[in-house]
Specification:
Blueprint lengths: L1 H23 L5 H5 L4 H8 L1 E6 L8 E2 L6 E2 L1 H13 L2 E6 L5 H6 L5 E7 L2 H4 L2 E3 L4 E10 L15 E4 L4 H8 L3 E4 L3 H9 L6 E4 H10 L5 E18 L3 H16 L2 H10 L6
Parallel strand pairs: 1-4, 1-5, 8-9
Antiparallel strand pairs: 2-3, 5-11, 6-11, 7-10, 7-11
């Protein structure tokens, strides 16, 4: 019996040693090989870049004349990027509050919807180089004299999308936030006096003011820090992110980015 146990122990030790040798020589590398980044090849193979956007966020993503074709600054930038990748741009319109969940569940490849870069998001997602640089602003009724800075939002009520970067800015300023689906709803609530203010992107306000000169709204304060918006990808999509960065560099070089920006804002907001 002892002799049998000894032989079994020797065999077991020999097998263990062999396993260690195979692992050291690369025999244990199969799992790492099976988890490669296929983000770019997946897009190339299906011939389309599936892009999430709201479709209600003028001038970035909206329908011309309310019910026409999807258009906007972000839409045209995304179309130009997809063209550089040699694929079709396919858009999926999604409410902002569900847009990150949709990316997580692989309903689309990326988001083009003025997504601001912050540390919390960078920990969860990949970001392209920025394609828009702007600032956050506090928007109030024109006759509001009580809010002249972000600090003045303390104790006031603002209307914000709960997953936007501007929601975080409002909360950090001490505001009480009422949830809305987007800019149009927040602007209406401010106009009606149902909230004191909204925090949003300066470019959104400027476009709104240009197209709605009698809105009765004003910029009451502007954040000192710049906000940068970029395409967002699932974590690990490094090859697709790099390809989009290359496409945007080419579009900057040939003047396409500046041309699209001038069309919507009268200035180059891409750098």
């Amino acid at each position: 019996m002892n002799s049998l146990r000894t032989r079994r122990s020797v065999i077991a030790a020999t097998l263990a040693s062999a396993a260690l040798v195979l692992t050291a020589c690369g025999g244990g590398s199969t799992p790492a090989q099976s988890g490669g980044d296929t983000s770019l090849s997946d897009v190339k193979s299906k011939g389309e870049l599936v892009i999430a956007t709201e479709g209600t966020y003028r001038p970035f993503s909206f329908h011309a004349e309310g019910a026409g074709d999807l258009t906007g600054f972000d839409v045209e930038i995304a179309q130009a990027v997809a063209g550089k990748l040699g694929v079709k741009a396919t858009f999926q319109e999604t409410q902002f509050d569900g847009i990150f969940a949709g990316l997580d569940s692989k309903r689309f490849d990326t988001i083009a919807n003025q997504i601001s870069i912050n540390d919390e998001r960078k920990a969860k997602y990949e970001f392209s180089t920025p394609y828009t640089i702007s600032t956050g602003v506090v928007v109030t009724k024109s006759d509001n004299t009580g809010i002249n800075s972000f600090a003045d939002l303390k104790g006031k009520t603002t209307a914000q999308s709960l997953t936007s970067n501007f929601y975080k800015m409002a909360v950090e300023a001490g505001a009480n936030v009422q949830a809305v689906e987007g800019w149009a709803q927040s602007a209406t609530l401010v106009q009606q006096g149902r909230v004191d203010a909204t925090v949003n992107d300066k470019l959104t306000y400027l476009d709104y003011a240009k197209n709605t000169p009698d809105s009765g709204l004003k910029v009451a304060a502007e954040a000192p820090d710049k906000t940068e918006s970029a395409f967002v990808f699932r974590k690990g999509s490094t090859e697709l992110t790099a390809a989009v960065d290359k496409a945007m560099a080419d579009l900057q070089a040939d003047g396409t980015m500046a041309k699209i920006s001038e069309k919507y804002f009268g200035a180059d907001v891409t750098k």
